[in-house]
Design brief:
heterodimer, A: 125 residues, alpha+beta, N-terminal domain of TfIIb, 4-stranded antiparallel beta sheet, 4 strands, 20% strand, B: 250 residues, alpha/beta, Rossmann fold, 7-stranded mixed beta sheet, 7 helices, 7 strands, 32% helix, 19% strand, elongated, nucleus (chain A)
Amino acid sequence: MKLLTHNLLTSHVRGVGPRGFPLRLQATEVRINPVEFNPDFVARMIPKVEWAALREAANTLQLGEVPTEPVEGYERDEAFLRKMHHVLLEVDVLEGTLQCPESGRLFPISRGIPNMLLNDDETES
Amino acid sequence: MIDVQTKMAERALELLCLPEGQPCYLLDIGCGSGLSGDHLSESGHYWVGIDISSSMLDAALDRDTEGDLLLGDMGQGLPFKPGSFDGCISISAVQWLCNANKKTQIPAKRLYCFFTTLYSVLVRGARAILQLYPENSEQLELITTQATKAGFTGGVVVDYPNSARAKKFYLCLFSGPSTSLPKGLTENQDAEQATESAFTHQRLPHRTSRRAMVRKSREWVLEKKARRQRQGKEVRPNTQYTGRKRRPRF
């Protein structure tokens, strides 16, 4: 699971709503995958990123310094885009857990796939 | 030999009408072993796939797909932040929402939960193209009703409607203002097929001749009896009393 995906995931346990974001990440196995750099895509994703959640996740994985917010004119700053590309798309969490901040419910991650299946009593439907 | 799934993924991507040359972040619902996802990657997009079967996802891992995979049930809602995706495709998955696997599951509720969360995770103005195999027209209607309730506009595009083998349904949902629905594919694209029947005035002389007759008059009664006799029905013989004026209190 890439950090970009983690930044967009929320908990959909019944009654949690917007308080289900962000999911607290705990990782036991992480891998770095080289991915082709696409500046257009990274630049488009920057506005969607929730920076506090990204910094928290990067700190848990000990990735080093992630900027607090996008630099002015980030679309042309290649160094910044490459750094964000590495953090968002090249870091792959293989084993770990995601925890809902409101209900405390744990979603395990196995082989890079988070298990988001809810039990009957936790679903809205 | 291109796989059917890949062909459908191609068509779904075409129907998505994403801006040219721009890499987008897409959601693949019911991604399975990632056949449709691979096509998205080849077209330069990034994607996240969700599927309920862990064995299919394991197969996707073995095929080394580029998109992120999630194990989840679409009927429980999509666990993403609002405005996460630029578009969504689904190949042969949505009809499964109509099957209630457990007694506690109500298909209509699951469909509604799915469509409302889908509406929320899509960017404003984004599209969702869902290829599905509806069992019958009632099932298709159930699905489209729930999608409309969730706030989507759009409709069903049918490709090759006259071929039993090639016929495919694509539920095209738009989350922004109404746009016109794309046309379905048909067998011969070049010939201008006359799909309407030509209108003739052949029945009109008969209609105009009867316009002169006043309803309920003796003349009208006699004409009606003659018509029914021509049709072979049993008619009472005409006498001096046929169609005579009755007392007002009749």
